[in-house]
Specification:
about 350 residues; Rossmann fold; seven-stranded mixed beta sheet; six-stranded mixed beta sheet; 10 helices; about 25% helix; globular; binds zinc ion
């Protein structure tokens, strides 16, 4: 069995894994690099793409899904498997959707069985265990056990011929707890000095975790999408391990802007104004090279402290010791090189 890494190993973005079967193939995720990239799509041929019967999406973020329209233009006609919440979050329609529930196992074809669990990264995010033509493959998706809010079905006691594990978080920046404490301290100090804090976050993901972390420190000012994510919680309770603390306190302003790269002109203007007034623009995730967020960083007007929504190298070492994976590929980071095409011997 041959596996081709279309992207997402040795780089941050473009997660895409192509598993070639005898008659048809399967694919896990189809992300892009940043939108400004000259060649943002997975490194796969139209012939490979048109052989794919099933595309499994781990979650809705663009580094895992945004190449879907391009795949269709390249001849993709397969079915798409994801959680109901992931389908609802996608900014495009999927032609042949098939819903899988967290914890469920499905026979998709005679030689293709998929089971899944919640990966702790955002509402709808899953890891997949795939039995395909006599081989078992495991994909962690974006995975973390260090959550304040999201439920994670921890990978324990699993086995696989090969496991693709999110190793995005660089442990030199400290443990998940240390990162959370750094963010808490930076925001607390800024608010105490009477200055506002601006937090660009994704529409789905760490924004809610940050609300939990920063509860009681200041007055939350949520934009429409952040408010919508918060309002949806009562209808998505199975994705959370505990309730979100219900309101923010009085005091200085903490802005949640659901626009990580500050693409929308209105958000840019707001950020410029608040920074000019002495506000702290705090980036808590990946900033794309040519983004407006990165422009603030380059001018020394933004700080970066990553919120731990990914597994670290150390967490992956632990996963390897608590499961039995014959081969491991560490994904989602420049630190771990792309091993090239992989062949699982028969
Ligand atoms: Zn993600
Ligand atoms: Zn990702």
């Amino acid at each position: 069995m041959n596996i081709v890494i279309g992207g997402g190993v040795g780089e941050h973005g473009r997660n895409c894994f192509y598993v070639e079967g005898q008659q048809a193939s399967i694919m896990v995720d189809c992300g892009i690099m940043s939108e400004g990239d000259a060649h943002p799509y997975p490194r796969l041929t139209a012939e490979q793409i048109s052989r794919v019967n099933w595309l499994l999406l781990t979650h809705s973020h663009q580094d895992h899904t945004a190449a879907y329209p391009w795949l269709v233009s390249q001849g993709f006609r397969g079915q798409v498997l994801a959680s109901e919440e992931t389908f609802a979050q996608l900014p495009f329609e999927v032609e042949k959707p098939c819903v899988i529930e967290a914890g469920q196992g499905l026979d998709l074809e005679q030689d293709l069985h998929v089971s899944c669990g919640r990966s702790g990264h955002c509402v709808g995010s899953l890891w997949y265990e795939i039995d395909f033509q006599g081989r078992r493959l495991l994909f962690s998706g974006d995975y973390t056990e260090d959550t304040l809010l999201y439920a994670c079905d921890k990978l324990r006691g699993h086995w696989a011929d090969i496991a693709f594990l999110d190793s995005s978080r660089n442990p030199v920046f400290g443990s998940a707890e240390a990162l959370q404490m750094q963010i808490l301290r930076a925001v607390t100090n800024t608010i105490r000095e009477g200055r506002p804090v601006i937090l660009p976050v994704p529409r789905h993901g760490r924004g809610l975790e940050l609300m939990q972390l920063l509860y009681g420190i200041g007055h939350f000012r949520l934009d429409e999408d952040s408010q919508a994510a918060r309002d949806a919680i009562p209808f998505q309770q199975e994705w959370f391990k505990q309730p979100l603390k219900d309101a923010s306190s009085q005091g200085g302003s903490i802005y949640f802007i659901a626009d990580t790269q500050l693409k929308k002109p209105g958000n840019r203007v707001l950020a410029e104004r608040l920074v000019a007034e002495g506000g702290l623009l705090l980036l808590t995730g990946h900033a794309e090279d040519n983004s407006f967020s990165m422009r603030f960083v380059k001018r020394g007007e933004a700080s970066i402290i990553s919120y731990p929504t990914h597994a670290s190298d150390r967490a992956v070492d632990l996963l390897c010791s608590l499961n039995s994976f014959a081969q491991v590929v560490r994904t989602h980071s420049e630190r771990h090189p792309d091993p090239g095409p992989i062949t699982l011997a028969d």
